[in-house]
């Protein structure tokens, strides 16, 4: 009986360890979620600090660099009102973090509220003590799309 209990405990520990996020993954996930809120709040001061100077952004209507993205957010020409995050996957490789968020985005664009399903790919790089976003890409997907973990 003790042998079975020991094996069960060991198995339970290994399964919980496998599914636990590392502290770096938790940090990146929080940063990604904060970013969605900063975009909704049009907080360009926080976003300016987060976005690397060479960051690139890919949207349904085009792609551009940091200055244009901040201008779009500040002016409200695209207002990222709310991102409902349904699923997140994170991979860390050295000082680079990749984040995939499956979201329903409610945005105000050209005078209209629109809602779209996206998988958003984010690339972050650790620079000194801070994480900087290098890229953000919106990929239009069906609401049944699943991120492979």
TrEMBL record:
Domain DUF4440: start-end pairs: 31-133
Signal peptide interval: 1-20
Species of provenance: Algoriphagus aquimarinus
Entries under InterPro entries matching the protein: DUF4440, NTF2-like_dom_sf
Gene3D superfamilies per UniProt: 3.10.450.50
Keywords assigned: Signal
The protein's name in its UniProt record: DUF4440 domain-containing protein
Claim: Acetylation is one of the keywords in the record: no
Residues in coiled coil: none
């Amino acid at each position: 009986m003790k042998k079975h209990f020991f094996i069960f405990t060991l198995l339970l520990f290994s399964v919980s360890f496998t599914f636990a996020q590392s502290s770096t993954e938790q940090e990146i996930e929080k940063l990604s979620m904060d970013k969605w809120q900063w975009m909704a709040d049009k907080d360009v001061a926080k976003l300016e600090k987060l976005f690397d100077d060479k960051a690139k952004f890919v949207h349904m209507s085009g792609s551009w660099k940091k200055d244009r993205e901040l201008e779009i957010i500040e002016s409200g020409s695209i207002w990222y009102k709310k991102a409902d995050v349904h699923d997140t996957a994170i991979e860390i490789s050295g000082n680079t973090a990749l984040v995939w968020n499956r979201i329903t985005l409610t945005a105000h664009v050209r005078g209209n509220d629109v809602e779209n399903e996206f998988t958003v790919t984010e690339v972050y790089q650790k620079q000194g003590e801070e994480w900087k976003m290098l890229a953000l890409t919106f990929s239009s997907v069906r609401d049944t799309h699943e991120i492979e973990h």
